[in-house]
Specification:
The protein contains 16 helices and two strands. With 301 residues, the protein is mostly helical. The chain has one domain: ADP-ribosylation/Crystallin J1 (ADP-ribosylglycohydrolase fold, Orthogonal Bundle).
């Protein structure tokens, strides 16, 4: 069973307390890797997820309800999510794009040119699961979804990369993953960094925290996407991968959320320690994951 949304939510909720903090932040150094701490910044209680998961859920629901990617529908849903306050945060680029959509600008022109935030990549995994056996539609959908908010080759490359990684992960098809992903990416720094990941992953003399320091974990798609894919491929278990991502600091919840979504796409719920099952909306997330994977819009809740 593929559980991309559950993996995203757990990792997001675990990482929110460290968002924007350096790896030397004392509470982060002391964190046990098991406890949900919440976020005063976003007003989140322990176990509650942030915008990374809220946007991913919204995209998943749109894919399920429309039996495919519908840019008219999802652009309206993004506006509603942000303006209703249910998004639990958003980046400046995403908010600027939402304002464009609200003012009547069509989704094909609403994205912010030259943007390099990770807001579109963080929500891209559901596209990968839904279109895991249709790469052409996956690439087209990830491209358009990115452009709704982030109109740049970097953001587009990041979204396609994460959608592809989720698709290949759910199909347990990981051989030469980074090079196969790069075949579909536009020329970009994201592509260049992903292409070079294998040597970093296989370098036993380079500790994961050193590798993440080199790759970067800031709120920049050129950093977040390569780092998330690195954590996914470096570790064979959910817990070590997401703890490593969070301990690197900076945009910790987003790096962890993407990492968790990829690993849970591959290992499913059985690969996630049950201590994390107290995450918010556990039942809803597992049902949505089933609907997304089976492309089933039957309503269970």
């Amino acid at each position: 069973m593929c559980n991309t949304l559950l993996g995203c939510a757990i990792s997001d909720a675990l990482g929110v307390f460290a968002e924007g903090k350096l790896s030397t932040y004392r509470p982060l150094l002391d964190w046990d890797g098991k406890t949900f701490l919440g976020s005063e910044r976003h007003g989140l209680k322990p176990g509650e997820y942030s915008d990374d998961t809220a946007f991913s859920i919204t995209l998943a629901e749109s894919l399920i309800n429309n039996n495919g990617f519908n840019p008219d529908d999802i652009s309206k849903k993004y506006v509603d999510l942000v303006l209703s306050g249910r998004s639990r945060g958003f980046g400046r680029t995403t908010y600027a794009a939402i304002q464009n959509l609200q003012s009547g600008i069509h989704w094909s022109e609403s994205g912010i040119p030259g943007s390099y935030g990770n807001g579109s990549a963080m929500r891209a995994s559901p596209i990968g699961i839904f279109f895991r056996n249709d790469i052409k539609s996956l690439v087209e959908s990830a491209t358009i979804d990115a452009q709704i908010t982030h109109a740049s080759n970097e953001a587009i490359a990041g979204s396609i990369a994460i959608a592809l990684a989720a698709a290949f992960a759910s199909n347990n098809d990981l051989e030469n993953l980074t090079k196969r992903i790069c075949e579909y990416l536009p020329d970009s720094k994201v592509k260049s960094k992903i292409y070079g990941l294998e040597s970093l992953i296989n370098a036993d003399h380079i500790a994961p925290q050193q590798a993440l320091s080199v790759l970067g974990t800031g709120a920049d798609v050129k950093e977040t996407v390569p780092s998330s894919i690195y954590c996914f491929l470096k570790f064979d278990n959910f817990t070590d991968a997401i703890i490593t991502a969070i301990k690197a600091g900076k945009d910790a919840d987003t790096t962890a959320a993407i990492t968790g979504s990829l690993i849970a796409s591959n290992l499913g719920i059985n690969g996630i320690d049950s201590i994390y099952y107290t995450v918010e909306d556990f039942d809803k997330l597992t049902i949505l994951d089933s609907q997304l994977f089976n492309r089933n819009n039957h309503k269970y809740f």
